Amino acid sequence: MLRVAITFALCAVACTFSPSGSQSGDAGGSGADGRHNDAHGLDASDLGTCSDGLKNGNELEVDCGGRCSACTKLFDVDSNALAIFELNGDASDSSGNGRDATLLGGSFVTTSWGHGLSVPGDAAMPQGLDWSDFADLLVHPYTIEMVVRPADVRCWKKLFGPDDNSDVGWHYCTKFETYPNNTVGPDLSDGARNYFALVSTAADKIDVYIDGARVGNLDASFTAPPSQAIFFRDDTTTGRLEQLSGVIDAVRISKVARSAAEITAVQLRLAAQP
Ligand SMILES: [Ca+2]
Ligand SMILES: [Ca+2]
User: Fold this and answer.
1) DSSP bridge pairs for 184
2) Are strands 194-202 and 183-184 parallel, antiparallel or unpaired?
3) Domain 81-272's class?
4) Cα(192) to centroid of ligand 2, in Å?
5) How many Cα neighbours within 13 Å face the side chain of 105?
6) Averaged pLDDT of the chain
7) Where are the domains of the chain?
8) Least confident range of 34-38, 98-102, 139-143
9) Which of 24, 37, 153, 187 is most buried, taking the most CB atoms under 10 A from its CB?
């Protein structure tokens, strides 16, 4: 009886089942040795679990990640999202709220998370996203999360502007900066992916998280709600000479202060599919 129980327990860990109930993990006849959950020892039967509607094997989400094809949705949809832009070929809102951004310019390129918006960083070229139609929704508390791989982090490369006629806003300036206020956090690097989470702590203050770690609290450089919400394009005041160059994989805008645990969870997802 003990042996039966152990066998069953092993199977619960190592075997996979199709929705019809037929067991697929042992299809190769190797027994419940865990081999089929090992990304280094696959056979044809393993790949069937990449389309079974279940999160199994080493999948990051249901039927994607790990040994399956890459996951393409970085952010989970929940009731606290105002808008989610996965940027997998367009600027549509995947939160279910229909708050699409206007694509100002850029091109879509392949990334480890499907696709991202590539912006050239050229003052003469249109680029970025305009979400100004919904800027009045950005009241405290709010959270803006952005996953960006910059080509150049030198001062200044604008990430977010609350007003197209103002130099203020969020920038790369070697570090993260809420111009004209303060820089915060570590020195950042050209070509390295950054996950920024900017979490309001008052109408004019934000906590800054970079790659899952809280690095400080500082003036947001504007008082929420902003008059506009322009991402990844420089303002007219500086002649659009402070344009970001790089690739943006996804953006989520939320009507809550996302918790440290939620932000850590996103960073772990990112790290699992570098
Ligand atoms: Ca699966
Ligand atoms: Ca994406």
Assistant:
1) 176
2) unpaired
3) mainly beta
4) 16
5) 14
6) 87
7) 2-51, 81-272
8) 34-38
9) 153
Please report which ligand is nearest the Cα atom of 55: 1
Alpha helices in 32-172 (DSSP H): 44-47
The pLDDT assigned to 134 comes to: 98
pLDDT at 42 > cutoff 60? no
CA of 12 to the centre of ligand 2 (A): 34
Instruction: Name 182's Cβ contacts closer than 8 Å, sequence gap at least 6.
Output: 216, 218, 219
- The rounded Å distance from CA 4 to ligand 2 centre is 46
Q: How many CB atoms lie within 10 A of CB 109?
A: 12
Which ligand approaches the C-alpha of residue 88 most closely? 2
pLDDT of residue 181: 85
Query: Please, which pLDDT band fits residue 45 given cuts at 50, 70 and 90?
Result: low
CA distance 16 to 40: 17
pTM of the model: 0.83
Residue 74 CA to ligand 1 center (angstroms) comes to 18
Which ligand gives the minimal distance to the CA of 64?
1
Ligand 1 centroid, distance to 64 Cα (angstroms): 7
